[in-house]
Amino acid sequence: MKKYCIGLILFLASVTCMYGQKNPDKFISNCIANTGPDSKYLKDFRIQLGQSSTSNEFRFKAKIYLWKDTKYRFTMCTAENSKGQLIMNIRDELNKLILESSDSKTGTIYPFIDFNCTRSGLYQICYDFSGMLSGSGAGIISILE
Known about the structure:
Helix content is about 20%, strand content about 45%. By secondary structure, the protein is α+β, with helices and mostly antiparallel strands. Strand 6 (about 100-105) and strand 7 (about 110) form a beta hairpin.
């Protein structure tokens, strides 16, 4: 009888753990799928911003440590109901602009950018929506193999 009670308790605990997991965000899952088959997921940022009247600085900022001699892919996904398109830039420890996902000369906004890190250190990743418009989106960081 003791074996059956222990077995039942273990069974119920395992079922609870299986169904107790949070449902994955489909938007994030689709965005991760867009990073490509040669990439390994590292981190994601969910970005939701309202419209802004100032257009001089990116509003969503995060810091991440990147390793030398590693190639990273930064993928930006914009939700359908967004007025602007998600853009980003990367700055080093001295706040020097390293890379950006939009070309102000041509008006092109890239859905992802690859970054070959030449120096290990703390980098700031800044996200916003084009024209400082409102929007919702996700930024995915992955390593390219």
